[in-house]
Design brief:
alpha/beta
């Protein structure tokens, strides 16, 4: 899939110019591949990681998070937290909890997010925030930003371009990971 002229593509390009940011661009053909990517990313995650997801409605943010939950081995079905803002999925074994946040309806920055106590949850959990741009970056100097582009309009095209942007020293080796079959 060719790059989209969308806000997501523009944001991914802009974050690629953040000092020390590492970019990886992947092409996916189905929701199953999006879940598989989530499982693959989960293997690289550890407590204290902040993952920010950006993409149009229906791009696959929650599908990716389902894969993250499967890979992390957490309890409960991972569904969109749009109406509850945040859901905590405790681990089934010794791994970290998954805190899944949907910041779409939250207009302010970190001040409005304070009631969610994400800063308290972050050290022992993996925190995934949908629509978190401009709202949660202050939580961590190190974060993985995932930009998902899809064809827009009346289409049943399942293809997605996913750009992973690792910000901070925690993600310096992101480009060295094996991203087959997506790279």
């Amino acid at each position: 899939m060719e790059p989209q002229n969308s806000p997501t593509a523009a944001e991914a390009t802009a974050y690629g110019h953040v000092p020390g940011a590492v970019r990886v661009r992947l092409s996916l053909d189905s929701p199953e591949q999006m879940r598989a990517l989530g499982r693959r990313l989960a293997a690289a995650l550890r407590p204290g990681d902040l993952v920010m997801l950006t993409g149009e409605l229906g791009a696959g943010k929650t599908t990716l998070t389902r894969g993250l939950g499967e890979g992390l081995g957490v309890r409960g079905a991972v569904t969109s937290p749009t109406f509850v803002i945040a859901r905590v999925h405790p681990p089934l074994s010794g791994g970290p909890a998954l805190v899944h946040v949907d910041a779409y309806r939250l207009g302010g920055g970190l001040d409005e997010m304070e009631d969610l106590d994400l800063d308290v949850s972050l050290p022992e959990s993996v925190v995934v925030v949908e629509w978190g741009d401009g709202k949660v970056e202050e939580l961590s100097d190190d974060r993985l930003q995932v930009f998902i582009d899809r064809a827009v309009g009346d289409t049943d095209d399942e293809r997605r371009t996913v750009t992973l942007v690792g910000v901070g020293t925690r993600w310096a080796g992101l480009r060295n990971e094996s991203w087959t079959p997506w790279a």
